[in-house]
Amino acid sequence: MLAYILRRIVQSVLVMLVVALVSFSLFRFVGDPVATMMGQEASQADREALRDRLGLNEPVIVQFGSYIARASTGDFGISYRLQQPVMELILSRLPATLELALVSGLLAFTLGVGFGVYTALNRKGWLSGTIMTVSLIGVSLPTFLIGVLLIWVFAVELQWLPSFGRGDTVDIGPWRTGFLTESGRASIVLPAITLGLYQMTLIMRLVRAEMLEVLRSDYIKFARARGLSDRAVYFGHALKNTLVPVITITGLQLGSIIAFAIITETVFQWPGVGALFINSVQFVDIPVMAAYLMLIALIFVVINLIVDLLYYVVDPRLRVDRAAARH
Amino acid sequence: MTRPITRSPLRRLAAGLMISAAVMSAGLTAANAETIRWARVGDALTLDPHSANEGPTSTLLHHIYETLVRRDLDGSLKPRLATEWFIHPDDPTVWVFKLREGVKFHDGSDFTAEDVVASVTRVTAETSDFKGLHTAVAGAEAVDDYTVHIKMSGPSPLYVQNLTNFFIVDKGWVEANGVELPQDFKAGEEKYTVRNTNGTGPYVLESRDPEVRTVLTTNPDHWDEAPQVTEIIYTPIKEAATRVAALLSGEVDFVQDVPVQDIERLSNTPGVAVTAGAENRTIFFAYDVTSDSLISLPGDNPFKKPEVREAMALALDRDAIRQVVMRGQSVPGGQNVPPFVNGHDEALDAYTAPDYDKAMELMTAAGYPDGFAIDMHCPNDRYINDEAICQAYVGMLGRIGIKANLVSQSRTIHFPAIQNRQVDFYLLGWGVPTFDSQYVFDFLVHSPEEGRGGWNGSRYNNAEVDAMIKSLATETDLVKRDATIAEIWKTIQEDRVFLMVHNQLLAYAAKDNINVAVHPENQPSMTDVTFK
Fold it and tell me: Where is the signal peptide (chain B) (predicted)?
């Protein structure tokens, strides 16, 4: 187990290095940060001088080397745009994104599993039909449009919920949370629905398909033959076995929720790392972009690790296999 | 703004979900007559008054810091921290500024001539983003507590026009905090001034969360009349649809950067008023008029032929662009300088309706009866509907046989390409912060030469014009100077160095009880806002 984790960590570092290298090379095509940093009256000489000060005149490989060297000590440089340390910027924005991802992930998981089980057990019901149809709309509409529609209905027309921002926040140590204020809780509703809708549909359809598959299998028939109650059969046997692929998908989806919160954060002016990234791209703020991509890579790597470990917990056969292999 | 609570099942459901009606009324109440909630597309980049020469940054800083002179709504200069300014009667290279007495910085220290001197040092430093506006400065000297002499390297009759975004800092404060110079990125450390302020302005910084919310409250010790707005809550909202929605839902009171397609609808919304006005920015096309070979058409340069340039002008249907692309929100013209800038000429600004037959004749006369193919470069995230303007013109050029291949890119790629002469036919917008044509000539018309001609992507090269442009900088006889400006305009308009499209209009949207005028530099001041 320990060796397994260590091996995974070494792999993770390699993945991170590759991500850093790829993103660093890509940034050369995003444009010239100096163009947006200086006013229109700056002379060519001024621009050169600034490029020099930013270290942009060095070969990419040298820039990359010194970047990695500094990054390994936790120093990601100064944002060209906001003139503040990148690490501090990202850390101050991360709670907003994590809270949004958490709420929308929970929403997607509970509703997804619930609807999935329901539609699997009641295949013919009118409610199942409705849920399936609505879920189709959920996957086919772009996130941007869903967000704008929600804002239009719930913020402009009904005026029930705020249209942008995070509301009032409370600082608990380094963590800035919106959960403790009424306006903070109201603010998270629309973005969380927007962000979670696609994942919910995905989980729901997956649970439904798996559940239907499992219900047809022999051991369910045997369980029924033993006279177990519906409840025990559905939730004790069927659902538990359904959940293995669902956990995998949900885990990976949690990563994409954080990574792809960009659009939702932009639509709702949610002050998270996704919005920070988009603003940085437009300004060619290389230190922020690089650090953000590293962070996303890290999140994916960690989530994959956790998912692998969760397999052990849910599926006893893996433990048996692993143990058998050692002997 | 709070709506009466209705007993609909949906309403109860929502209340049960998470939010009580009471919370909502607290969150969405209308502004009282003192607070203004202000939203625009981007936030100020920094609070350092000399490190980012960028519109939204200067706009916010004008509320905290003050300048020696300010730009009024009509474009004229008005006193601010300086009460009088003039060129020294005995020395044409010295500007004299008489300062306002009894002004205090937010921390209570007095404003004196030494602070202006320290600010001049700071704004002319290598790491200052404003140093381009102060290149002629040789040094500053405090003659007495309320008189400053700024020594120029030569006669600079219009230097005071460059000072409308020159913020004055407190000498003692910058020294105490080690921020005598603007931020240097190489140093890799954050400057104190990025987050902390000490100005003389009408508002004091209450709190700041970059890109989330900045709160300013009135400075009780300010020298000028107290403004009606006593608290400013400034929130950037990047997405246009959300920005408009926030105004409609009553969560903000005043919105800048209103998308042109929403102007009409907002104007028809009860409770919302839209104010439009001319912006100090022209949108035009430029093309390489001197090279023998174009980048996208090696071995040939049709733009060198005056007939082709005239044909291209005849093909440009400015009124169609105004109606279709800009939804009426632009002022078409023929001279690429805004109307309130010194040197603007009604006659030169006139334009003709398109004439495709005549244009085709000219193309044939120039030796291109079958036209030619060329790349057209365009930004897609800088000006109002920039890419759509280019697309429209591509179609118009097609009617006279010019096949323009539209290359639409982000401004971060487009602008360096122009400066590095990697494009030969492009769209550009230009604002004139000095409100004088010399600014346009220096950057766009003069041939490249230390500090001048950096944006001359037209490759226009006319020694006579260059000499005239140079003479403007030091000509103290303003009548003679204006005559030279007129002559330069006449020449470059005849040579068709640029193909002007239109002046941009700005639109502000606000609740209809708020009076806010459009500022030509898009720098609205909350001190001017009044409530009905």
Answer: 1-25
